[in-house]
Amino acid sequence: MGFMLIAAAVLSACGQKEIENAKDWPVSDFTYTNQEGEAFGLKDLKGKVWVADFIFTSCDDVCIPMTHNMAKLQKMAKDEGIENIEFVSFTVDPEVDDGATLKNYAEHFNADFANWNFLTGYTQDEIQTFAVDVFKTLVQKPENDDQVIHGTEFHLVDQEGTIVQSYSGLNDIPFEQMISDIKTLQ
Q1: Is residue 1 one of the residues assigned to a domain?
Q2: How many CA atoms lie within 13 A of 163 on its CB side?
Q3: Predicted structure pTM score
Q4: Residues 177-186: pLDDT tens digits?
Q5: pLDDT score for 184
Q6: Distance in angstroms (rounded) separating the CA atoms of residues 4 and 82
Q7: Hey, which bits of the chain come out as E strands?
Q8: CATH classification at residue 163
Q9: pLDDT attached to residue 88
Q10: Which regions in the chain score pLDDT beneath 70?
Q11: What range defines the domain where residue 149 resides?
């Protein structure tokens, strides 16, 4: 009888898909302001799979291709019929990027605001700490510089608010793997 229970447990575990090399980084509670000037936070993402990144609108380097790639991922998810998915872009330059500025920036990429929120409404110190503590990625604004140093990863977060994987958001983007992992979490 004991053998049968073990065999059943092994067989049922084999049938479950898992994300390879999954991380287990919980996202701490947050409430910021989106491109519409509305409060948006972790409570709004509860029960949904979401993909996050860090960008800013006056970026003269990596943010444009990253936002283009996130827009492509959003379209792919829609084309695949994936529902219950959200996309979240945190500005790393909140003193410059208010809601209207973020909305104008996002519109250049045909972002669908139905499930993509661009967030601001925090201090520079807050986003730097949040990025490092929660997403394990650097955000740093050098003194007397209008550019911000930041990571270029896309972070996949499950329905419980736990980061499970990070992917390149800039080069050699694993779009198919991301779509597969999103489906695994659905």
Answers
A1: no
A2: 19
A3: 0.88
A4: 999 999 999 8
A5: 95
A6: 37
A7: 25-26, 31-33, 39-41, 49-55, 85-91, 116-119, 139-140, 149-150, 153-157, 162-168
A8: 3.40.30.10
A9: 99
A10: 1-17
A11: 29-185
